[in-house]
Amino acid sequence: QVVVLSLLMFPVLRGLALQLHSAVTGSYLSGTHSIAFINCLNEQIAKDIARAIMDKKLAACVNILPKSSALSFWKGELEESTEILLLVKTRTSKIGELSNYVRSIHPFEIPEIISLPIDQGNPLYLKWIEESVPR
């Protein structure tokens, strides 16, 4: 039980450690923010999901990238499609909530929602993300 509780507490403890480090040093700690990638079937769905994410204050910014070709295996068959990609800039601590919310509104059976931590960047931009997305 102690091990399970420790594992469940790790994200919370890591988040607190990140906040403390940033407050004490005034520097950016790699991984505090993330970029999430979400693929959508068409531009209207992409805009609707992007607006919903922003309305919930789950991101500081969502870029809607134009159509791209995609090849993937779905139910054993090779599928070819065009998709619109959302780039969502947010706090790493919000990725779980973002993923749950997008899954609840996305029309795909299994939507692509993946994220990568932001290693470094313009300090003023990273601070803006911090200020734009409530804890």
- Beta-strand percentage? 25-35%
What name is given to the CATH topology of the largest domain?
Answer: Alpha-Beta Plaits
Number of beta-strand segments: 4
The CATH architecture category of the largest domain equals 2-Layer Sandwich
Strand order of the largest sheet: 2-3-1-4
Count of runs of 4 or more consecutive helical residues: 4
Query: Uncertain spans, ≥5 residues at pLDDT below 50?
Result: none
Broad CATH class of the largest domain: Alpha Beta
Residue-averaged pLDDT = 89
Q: What's the main sheet like? A: 4 strands, antiparallel
The residue fraction in helices comes out at 40-55%
Category from helices, strands and their pairing: alpha+beta
What is the CA-atom radius of gyration, in angstroms?
A: 17 Å
What form results from the Cα inertia axes? elongated
**Terminal residue distance:** 28 Å
Number of domains: 2
Q: What order do the SSEs take from the amino end to the carboxyl end, as H and E? A: HEHEEHEH
Protein architecture, described:
This protein is of the alpha+beta class. It folds into 2 domains: 1-30, no CATH class; 31-132, Alpha-Beta Plaits (2-Layer Sandwich). It is 43% helix and 31% strand. The chain contains 4 helices and 4 strands; from the N terminus they run αβαββαβα. It has a 4-stranded antiparallel beta sheet. Strand 2 and strand 3 (77-91) form a beta hairpin. It is elongated. One of its GO terms (biological process) is response to metal ion. Homotrimer. Residues 1-17 form the signal peptide. Belongs to the CutA family. Keywords: Signal.
